[in-house]
Amino acid sequence: MSSFSSPPAPLQFVNCLLPSPPASTTPSQPPSLAAPSLAALSLFVDSSSGLILDSRTAFYGNPPSTPVDCGGDILAPGFVDIQLNGAFGVDFSAPSLSLADVAACSARLLSTGVTSYCPTLVSLSPPVYAKVLPVFSSYLSSPPPSAAAAAAVLGVHAEGPFFNPSMRGAHEPSNIVPPSPPTPATFSSVYGAPIDRSPIVLTTLAPEQPGALPFIELLTDNRIKVSLGHSAADYETGVAAVGAGATLLTHLYNQMTPFHHRKPGLIALLASPAPPNYSIIADGVHVAPAAVRCAWEMSRKMVLVTDAMAAMGLGDGAHKLGTMDVTKEGGRAVLTGTETLAGSVASMELCVRKMKEFTGCGAAEAIWAATGQPASVLGLEDRGNLRAGSRADLVLLDKDTLEVKKTYLGGRLVWERDK
Ligand SMILES: [Zn+2]
After folding, report:
1. 328-335, Cβ contacts within 8 angstroms, sequence gap of 24 or more
2. Bridge partners, 333 (sequence order)
3. If exposure means fewest CB atoms within 10 Å of the residue's CB, which of 42, 72, 247, 249 is most exposed?
């Protein structure tokens, strides 16, 4: 064998429908012009780097490519879930969380089409943050070998503890604190690590709390994205928070002041001159279908999140969310003995299908809300899209039902539904 062996042949995914990104996300642009769409095209992948190739140059390249037949189905970017509290029996907020737990959950998420995600923590006490957050720091700095065939951890979403206590939902009341004084010392005393050495990449906070606006500036100056939620803020405070750097609303409608025509609250930011993205739990349990559709008609900047907890992927019965007891029954999870929803038990695959059903949007638009939109919230351009140079983390979706059939990481098949 020659020592000058040629590079491995690129993979050419053929016989597939590819979702293209929207031509523009300008709200004023007619949806028919702005919407993502599906096109029958090939996708080329460099099998050694795992990156998507420019199809114009790869098509004429040498060596000839190796075809991968997609059977006429939709080949989409892998889903990106920026709010996942746990799944498959793993609770990311558990004080006993281990590296093996993170690895196991990350691997099993591939079956739901998720190839990257933000493990999300409910509001915890400083001693529990000090136990849990270092697990993610270790996982990110020295991933276990199994991480090569698992959904990528993008960093932690700290949902809390800087909430409005009246909007805490299923979060433990004694853990809720104000972000004051708005200093790096407050950050490290709560989360147990300096602001520039924390695995946190996204926080959800209530902008009306004392110190919140300068705290948003502090976080964004340190490359931590800020989402507004668990909040009773009025519209004006919401506008000020977006001006301070917040770029997202967390689970629109849930734990947020309802829309009122004289006091419209955070929901009206969707139609403001500088609209943020907004996440929504489109499982049909947390938000009524008509309300999902209203949000979609106000703004196309929808980000699908599962907000799933440990019971996702498991059977009905008793489960845990942080230190709180939760009961799962069918498609709902509530704090035991109450009607308070405690995270969802929905998969991203289900949310994509429900969004399409509830809003009447096209498949490519629903896929975009689970891929390109969440990636852009985190400022990531190397995933959530099918551009040359992006990671070939892909899902093959049934063109009619949008069910996940296969999941690829770097162009390599890592999960396949039983036939
Ligand atoms: Zn929440």
Report:
1. 331/283, 331/284, 331/285, 332/285, 333/309, 335/170
2. 328
3. 72
Residue with tokens 């947390």: 286
Domain boundaries, the chain: 11-76+386-416, 78-377
What would the mean pLDDT of 127-143 be, rounded to a whole number? 97
pLDDT band at residue 64, thresholds of 50, 70 and 90?
A: confident
CA of 157 relative to ligand 1 center, distance in Å: 11
307 is catalytic: yes
Q: Which CATH number fits domain 78-377: 1.10.443.10, 3.40.50.620, 3.40.50.1000, 3.20.20.140?
A: 3.20.20.140
CA separation (Å) from 96 to 18, 91, 99, 130?
A: 42, 9, 10, 12
Q: What is the pLDDT of residue 395?
A: 98
Rounded to the nearest whole angstrom, what is the distance from the C-alpha of residue 241 to the centroid of ligand 1? Answer: 18
From the CA of 304, how far away is ligand 1's center (Å)?
14
What angle (nearest 5°) sits at the alpha carbon of residue 175, between those of residues 169 and 181?
A: 115
Question: In the structure encoding, which two tokens stand for residue 354, read together?
Answer: 């429900």
Residues in a beta bridge with 416: 406
For 11-76+386-416, which CATH superfamily applies?
Answer: Urease, subunit C, domain 1 (2.30.40.10)
Tokens (6 digits) for 26? 């300008």
What is the pLDDT at residue 4? 55
Report the separation in Å between the CA atom of 327 and the middle of ligand 1, taken as the mean of its atom positions.
Answer: 17
Distance between Cα 307 and ligand 1 center (Å) = 8
* Among 307, 325, 382, 393, the one annotated catalytic: 307
Confidence bin at 6 (pLDDT 50/70/90): low
Per the structure block, which two tokens stand in for 309? Answer: 């907890």
Q: Is the pLDDT of residue 318 over 60?
A: yes
